[in-house]
Amino acid sequence: MNGLYALKPWYADQLSGVRASLVRHEVSPDTLTAAGVVAAAGAAAALAWLPAGPAALPVALLLAARLAFANLDGALARDTGRTTRRGAVLNELGDRVADLVVLAGFLALAPLWLVAVAGLAATLPSWVSLAGAAAGAPRRNGGPVGKTERCLLVVIAAASGWTVPVLTVIAAGSLLTAALRLAGLWRELA
């Protein structure tokens, strides 16, 4: 069920040079968390304001940056010994805000109710994972429609203009992902 999340170790290796440079320049992990939210906002703006087709490249680049920042903030904290409980909370809040900000780009393109449903559904897999971690289970990631897959789906919408079908897939896929994570968690905690 890992989906594109299975590529995370490879992706982290690709970012190792960037991470080393950030360590040398004493960049704060919190700065990277904030940069991820800013990149998400840029992707949302490009999605909302640019026509389908031309929007695809800036949306893809900004979402790639958003995913890179999401990968780098925790790794940088671990590399520099700056892991804190406050930083962990900020990281999770930054990820959820970035998820919702990206989907807010659809507000100019699709019915409000559908954007709201997709936004709420997109947060559910993470809440299930966080609840499991709070109960002592290992954190569950990935899934048929996790964070990386949602970003890919947004790029597809930016390229094609298929906003309603993409939001529908994000909503349904996120609900499925949350249900699968919950089922696995339920078995594990039995």
Descriptive keywords:
single chain, 190 residues, mainly alpha, 8 helices
3D structure, described in words:
The protein is an all-alpha fold. Helix content is 76%, strand content 0%. The protein contains 8 helices and no strands. α3 (29-49) packs antiparallel against α4 (56-80). The mean pLDDT is 94.
How much of the sequence is in beta strands? under 5%
Number of strands: 0
Report, as a whole number of angstroms, the end-to-end distance.
Answer: 20 Å
- Our count of helices gives 8
Mean pLDDT: 94
The structural class is: mainly alpha
The largest sheet, given as strand count, sense and whether it forms a barrel, is:
none
- Which spans have pLDDT < 50 for at least 5 consecutive residues? none
Q: Summarize the amount of helix as a percent range.
A: over 70%
Rg is 16 Å
Order of helices and strands: HHHHHHHH
* Global geometry: globular
Entry summary:
This protein is an all-alpha fold. It is 76% helix and 0% strand. The chain is built from 8 helices and no strands.
Q: Topology, please?
A:
Layout lengths: L7 H7 L1 H9 L4 H21 L6 H25 L4 H20 L7 H23 L12 H14 L2 H26 L2
Helix pairs in contact: 2-4, 3-4, 3-5, 4-5, 4-7, 5-6, 6-8, 7-8
